[in-house]
Amino acid sequence: QLELVESGGGSVQAGGTLRLSCAASGYTYSSNCMAWLRQAPVKEREGVAAMYTSGGITYYKDSVKGRFTISKDTAKNTLYLQMNSLKPEDPAMYYCVAALRCGIASSGILQLTLPRWGQGTQVTVSS
User: Fold this and answer.
1) Would you say 33 and 52 are in contact if contact means Cβ atoms under 8 Å apart?
2) Pairing state of beta strands 92-99 and 116-117?
3) Strand order, beta sheet including 68-73
């Protein structure tokens, strides 16, 4: 059984910084792709960043490129999302997701195969 526990959310002013963490435990071997998704009230869920656990392919939503960085600490089984220069459009519940595979549709949207979700951590940005 895979368990994902996010932490690091909070409230910051616009331009501020947060680092989200996702601690994975249990059966992680079928999770070839790790991702961060977010969902704001009355908005659809969207992919923010993703990476293969073996390294190589990464994905960033266009609006976070240059501001957010996804990374992992294999020894700690922890995924991170470093968020710099936070903007008023970034507030949402941020979810850590482990998937069998991830890909990018022709529309640019992140697609996940057999995703498993954490409980989420809330990010608030004040202007």
Assistant:
1) yes
2) antiparallel
3) 3-7, 18-25, 78-83, 68-73
